[in-house]
Amino acid sequence: MVYIASWDEFVDRSVQLFRADPESTRYVMKYRHCDGKLVLKVTDNKECLKFKTDQAQEAKKMEKLNNIFFTLMARGPDVDLSEVTGKEQIETQPAKKGRGRKQ
């Protein structure tokens, strides 16, 4: 097991690990409330990568990693990840006219 200190390195190596063997790669999240620690683990039964943090900022980055893995699993390991931003684009709807009381 390898604990990786840098978030960017963990994401890059995790994506490489998934692309090398998408059938047997697993992604596990473990949060311990009493310690306030979040541990992320990516493994393919040969190599195990781990990232541990107690910072709330790092927990926000976990959502981006989830979106990356969802994209890889849904579209295949050869998909371009440059379009994955971690947040879905919210389309703004135009204001509806004719509702409410006229002023």
TrEMBL record:
One CC-aspect GO term: signal recognition particle, endoplasmic reticulum targeting
Region Disordered, annotated ranges: 83-103
Entry keyword RNA-binding: yes
Residue stretches making up the SRP9 domain: 5-66
Localization annotation: Cytoplasm
One Pfam entry name: SRP9-21
SUPFAM superfamilies referenced in this protein's UniProt entry, alphabetically: Signal recognition particle alu RNA binding heterodimer, SRP9/14
Molecular function, one GO term: 7S RNA binding
Record flagged with keyword Cytoplasm: yes
Alphabetical UniProt keywords: Cytoplasm, Ribonucleoprotein, RNA-binding, Signal recognition particle
Biological processes per GO annotation: negative regulation of translational elongation; SRP-dependent cotranslational protein targeting to membrane
Superkingdom of source: Eukaryota
InterPro entries associated with the record: Signal_recog_particle_SRP9/14, SRP9, SRP9-like, SRP9_dom
Physiological role: Component of the signal recognition particle (SRP) complex, a ribonucleoprotein complex that mediates the cotranslational targeting of secretory and membrane proteins to the endoplasmic reticulum (ER). SRP9 together with SRP14 and the Alu portion of the SRP RNA, constitutes the elongation arrest domain of SRP. The complex of SRP9 and SRP14 is required for SRP RNA binding.
UniProt-listed PANTHER family: SIGNAL RECOGNITION PARTICLE 9 KDA PROTEIN (PTHR12834)
Family listed: Belongs to the SRP9 family.
Protein name: Signal recognition particle 9 kDa protein
